[in-house]
Amino acid sequence: MERMAREQNRIIGVLSMEYTVSDGNELFQNFLKGRRSCPLPEMMKEEDRARFFSCVEMSAEEGFETIVRALDQDNIYRWYYLYMKKFQAENGEFLYHMEMRDICGMEERLNRLETLNGQYERLMGLQNSMYFVYSYETEIFRIFWISENQLHVMAEKKLDEWEEEQCRLGKVTEEEEAVFHMLCKDIKSGTDRFVHDILSKIFSENGEEKLYRFRGISWKKKAKLSECYGTVQLLDRRTKRIKQDSALEEQLDPLTGLYNKRTCMQKLRSLLEEGAEAALTICMIDIDNFKTLNDTYGHLFGDRVLTVVADTMRDVLGNRGIVGRFGGDEFFIIIDCALEEQEVRQILFTIRKNIRWYFEKSEDQLVVTLSVGTASCPKDATSLDELFAKADRALYIAKEKGKDRFIIYDEEKHGRVTFDAEHRKIVELSIQKREEADMTSVVMHTYDLLQEKGMDGIDEVMGFVGKAFMIDRIAIFRNPDLLLWKGWGYEVWHQDNAGYILQEGYLNNFNANKVDACCGIEARAWKYPKAYEYLNKLGIKSSLQYIIGEGSDMAGLISYEMCKIRRKWSDEDIHNLTLISHFIGSSILRAEGENKADR
Q1: Is-above-0.85 flag for pTM?
Q2: pLDDT per residue as tens digits for the range 419-453
Q3: Helix spans in 250-340 (H)
Q4: Distances in Å between the alpha carbon of 50 and those of 38, 43, 44, 194?
Q5: Cis peptide before 480 (omega within 30 of 0)
Q6: Residue 31 φ/ψ, nearest 5 degrees
Q7: Is 112 a member of any domain?
Q8: Are strands 259-260 and 224-235 parallel, antiparallel or unpaired?
């Protein structure tokens, strides 16, 4: 029956060495429909024949796969998956075995299977049960449950390891060990059907013994054991009737369906208990300006933002870890596999991009962004508290740098965080980190440097400020004609002047403090097309600019520019860079005044 079901979807036949039909199933006969003597390549679209013959020449003995467009029984070109392999018949004649599948039909069947899969998952989610699956090929044992179409994995490892772990951790009492080992034996040996009631702490978070019924069935494919499936249900210890397992729902955040903070912490502790084998990354995530969104658009909209963020993170992360909600706009991700830093970056980039796209393309047309801080075990820390301290530090830096970004903790870049495990607190941040956290010290150092060295200290100030504020480049332009005078950073010499600010009323963007903080130059495209064209050519994504001089007596311009990412300038950034620009501008004006006096 299984073979017949497979063949119903396939065009199967035997071709001669001239590619004409020798034999075939019913679908093959329907496909030919009066064209038995026509060689198969003649039915293909001309552009696909060369690829077909190339495959035959190179791989006919081993067999090959390709896709071609061929005329169907209605004389219409359709895409087909094609498999061919050369073989020798009993009479010594060489022939081709051929299989074809209508790709459109395959897509339709796949859609139907996905629909059925979704229906089964929803039905399973209505049951207050856990489920298990064991693969005889991989020996992986997986326990999970489903809530609101979301899969929650309780355990996923080799069955022998899981069996040993439960006994080692004291989850199974001595009285129940024999039954527990019999359960594992039935699963491993492929017993057709089995039922075992086991009193244990396997699924207990508080150490309470609970009675669970394991019911399983093994499935064979082509007479070979393939998988073992089963249910795990909580029983009343007195009556042995199935009862509601409230502990499952208590693991979840009621709004988003994600794991709640308590469950996330339990799972993280469990992973870290694996010691040297633990390899994971934690991500602490805040929705930027969520309180403003909530207050402006209402709590129902705020709940919608939270659920979209939750669904997006869960979809992107997939089976590489778990997502949780700590409360409010705070989310948490555990990536519980050893990924390279670039892979972690790709996950976080995709999450942020997908969330932005969702809201920018919706009728609300809002910008919803995230700030993320991450730390890894064992690279950054091996204890839970220290891991959290460093991830939290990275999150703080992400917010300080203007939000809408992720920071992967790196001690060399972000400074040392020393953690006192006994008193559960940070006892030291490196000097580098303290200066980063307190930008007032950067401003005061800039002032002292310019007071001491005047114009001769500007180059040093530009480098110091650029690194402290993580700015890509700084350019200073001076009259006449706002020509570039000094530059620091990323490809700064590609620009020669800032004359664009004198065109199209561009100066209207500067406020009373002579500052223009532009978070994205795209906003200037329609109103200042010439300026936008020039800025875009220079690769500027965001800028903060300060006019040197008063009124019509403009002496120059200081431009802080982001070229690699768009930057949302924080109020603190604007305030501090305005002060620094004032100090630099005053040094320039003072030097010009002294030069005029000397002349």
Answers
A1: no
A2: 555 544 444 443 333 334 467 778 888 998 898 88
A3: 261-272, 290-297, 299-317
A4: 18, 13, 10, 57
A5: yes
A6: -65, -40
A7: no
A8: unpaired
How far is the C-alpha of 348 from the C-alpha of 107, rounded, in Å? Answer: 31
Region label for 399, one of left (φ > 0), alpha (ψ between -120 and 50) or beta (otherwise):
alpha
Q: What is the CATH number of the domain that holds 191?
A: 3.30.450.20
Whole-number mean pLDDT of the chain? 84
Helix pair 571-598, 439-453: axis angle to 10 deg: 0
- Mean pLDDT is highest, among 126-130, 261-265, 336-340, 399-403, for 261-265
Write down the pLDDT at residue 277.
62
Assess whether pLDDT exceeds 60 at residue 1. Answer: no
CB 134 within 8 A of CB 228: yes
Distance CA 433, CA 412 (A): 10
Whether 461 and 431 map to the same domain: the answer is no
The confidence score (pLDDT) of residue 254 equals 83
Q: Does residue 116 lie within any of the structural domains? A: no
Helices (H), 273-383: 290-297, 299-317, 341-361
Q: Are strands 405-408 and 370-377 parallel, antiparallel or unpaired?
A: parallel
Helix (H, G, I), strand (E, B) or coil at 292: helix
Check residue 130 and give its pLDDT. Answer: 87
Residues 356-363, mean pLDDT to the nearest whole number: 80
- DSSP class of 503: S
Cα dihedral 147, 150, 152, 153, rounded to 10, equals 130
Q: Does residue 264 share a domain with residue 230? A: no
Residues 6 or more apart whose CB falls under 8 angstroms from that of 538 comprise 494, 495, 561, 563
In total, how many domains does the chain have? 4
Six-digit token pair at 547?
A: 């006019």
The reported pLDDT for the residue numbered 439 is 73
* Higher pLDDT, residue 389 or 338: 389
In angstroms, the CA 274 to CA 354 distance is 33
Q: Quick one: average pLDDT of 102-120?
A: 73
Dihedral of alpha carbons 486, 492, 496, 502, sign:
negative
Mean pLDDT value of segment 329-352: 89
Residue 81 phi, psi dihedral angles, 5° rounding: -80, 135
Q: Are 183 and 193 in contact (CB under 8 A)?
A: no
213 neighbors 195 (Cβ within 8 angstroms): yes
CB 211 within 8 A of CB 234: yes
- The residues, ordered by sequence, that sit 6+ positions from 292 with a Cβ below 8 Å of its Cβ are none
Query: Sign of torsion, CA 205 207 212 215?
Result: positive
- Residue 490: pLDDT band (50, 70, 90) is low
- Domain of 206 in residue numbering reads as 127-249
Query: Would you say 474 and 559 are in contact if contact means Cβ atoms under 8 Å apart?
Result: yes
Nearest to 403, CA basis, from 374, 370, 439: 370
- Residue 153 and residue 292 in one domain: no
Residue 566: both structure tokens together: 């768009």
Lowest mean pLDDT among 189-203, 209-223, 487-501: 487-501
- Torsion angle in degrees (nearest 10) through CA of 77, 55, 37, 6: -70
Residue 363 banded pLDDT, cuts 50, 70, 90: low
Is residue 444 a part of any domain in this protein? no
